[in-house]
Amino acid sequence: MVIKGVLKEELQNSQSIKKEYERELAKLPKGCLVKKNIKGHHYYYVAKREGQKVVFVYQKNISGKEIKRYQDAKRRRKKYRKLISELNDEIKFIRRALRG
Question: Which structural domain, as residue segments, surrounds residue 62?
Answer without folding.
Answer: 2-99
